[in-house]
């Protein structure tokens, strides 16, 4: 089987077997182009790709074309700083955007500590455990499990549909009431999340991160357009800078398209980001043609 790798304006062809790993492919590409495996970023479908995954597990087809970005220590450091800032901003917005109301600073401080988070109101209390986190859920005996989930939603930043409540290993049905399941004041309940919850939270973080990148990409593109409008005789330099910018835009497009986000506000934000990136693609194509054809 064959794979075509686009890196820095060049295309490298590698023959591979279905059992060959991504790490091995990176090493072979490094032998052709000189870019070390740890400095390669392959734009593949899906959210996570391990170097131990095989050609077949990556769902790559024969003669597939994959874009590869080159990273370096300086870029990685800057990216890590941006990502950390964006992640801190996004993590606070996730806890409020996915809920019906904003989480108070007191609630957030409690959730980040080992102190139990007080949730809801009622004459009895259930102890909800999720990993190291503890929630004291106050409710009434006739409350349904679905109502408990909605009460927990602001504190756990998880939609009711993504929550699973279990007692002694048995999952509680949404229609069950506290009384029907024999739960008493102080009963312990385990909280788990369905797989989609974590994917969506990661997707929201990724979307927020890309949103901060788009503004910088647009600013750089505007500067290149301005330089070209002055008709300075630097076409090779402009094309090189434009090529690097185009790679970053394609990486942002890849991240936005693969981000799993909940329906509603975040879904609209993804559509807005996709629209902005598509407009940048068009501007890049137009600028490249203008530079190549000359005055």
TrEMBL record:
Q: What are the residue boundaries of the Ubiquitin-like domain, all occurrences included?
A: 1-75, 124-195
Tell me which positions the record assigns to the signal sequence: none
Q: Which segments show compositional bias classed as Low complexity?
A: 77-103
- Composition-biased stretches, type Basic and acidic residues, lie in 104-114, 263-278
Per its UniProt entry, which superkingdom is the organism in?
Answer: Eukaryota
Q: Give this protein's Gene Ontology molecular function annotations.
A: cadherin binding; RNA binding
Check the record and name the Pfam families matching this protein: ubiquitin
Q: Which PANTHER family match?
A: UBIQUITIN DOMAIN-CONTAINING PROTEIN UBFD1
Q: What is this protein called?
A: Ubiquitin-like domain-containing protein
Natural source organism: Chrysotila carterae
**Lineage, highest ranks first:** Eukaryota, Haptista, Haptophyta, Prymnesiophyceae, Isochrysidales
């Amino acid at each position: 089987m064959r794979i075509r790798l686009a890196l820095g304006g060049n295309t490298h062809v590698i023959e591979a077997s279905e059992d060959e790993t991504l790490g091995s492919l990176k090493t072979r590409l490094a032998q052709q182009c000189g870019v070390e495996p740890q400095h390669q970023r392959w734009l593949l479908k899906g959210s996570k790709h391990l170097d131990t995954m095989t050609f077949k597990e990556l769902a790559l087809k024969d003669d597939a074309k994959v874009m590869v970005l080159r990273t370096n220590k300086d870029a990685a450091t800057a990216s890590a700083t941006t990502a950390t800032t964006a992640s801190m901003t996004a993590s606070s917005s996730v806890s409020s955007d996915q809920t019906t109301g904003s989480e108070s600073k007191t609630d957030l401080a409690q959730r980040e500590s080992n102190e139990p988070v007080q949730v809801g109101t009622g004459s009895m209390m259930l102890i909800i455990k999720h990993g190291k986190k503890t929630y004291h859920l106050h409710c009434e005996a006739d409350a349904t499990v679905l109502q408990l989930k909605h009460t927990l939603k602001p504190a756990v930043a998880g939609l009711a549909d993504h929550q699973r409540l279990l007692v002694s290993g048995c999952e509680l049905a949404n229609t069950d009431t506290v009384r029907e399941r024999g739960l008493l004041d102080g009963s312990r309940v385990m909280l788990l999340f369905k797989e989609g919850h974590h994917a969506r939270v990661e997707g929201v973080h990724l979307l927020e991160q890309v949103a901060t990148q788009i503004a910088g990409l647009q600013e750089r593109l505007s500067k290149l357009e301005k330089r070209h409008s002055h008709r300075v005789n630097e076409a090779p330099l402009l094309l090189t800078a434009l090529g690097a910018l185009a790679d970053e835009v394609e990486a942002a497009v890849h991240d936005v398209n693969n981000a799993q986000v909940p329906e509603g506000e975040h879904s609209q934000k993804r559509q807005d980001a996709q629209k902005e990136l598509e407009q940048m693609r068009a501007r890049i194509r137009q600028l490249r043609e203008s530079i190549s054809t000359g005055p």
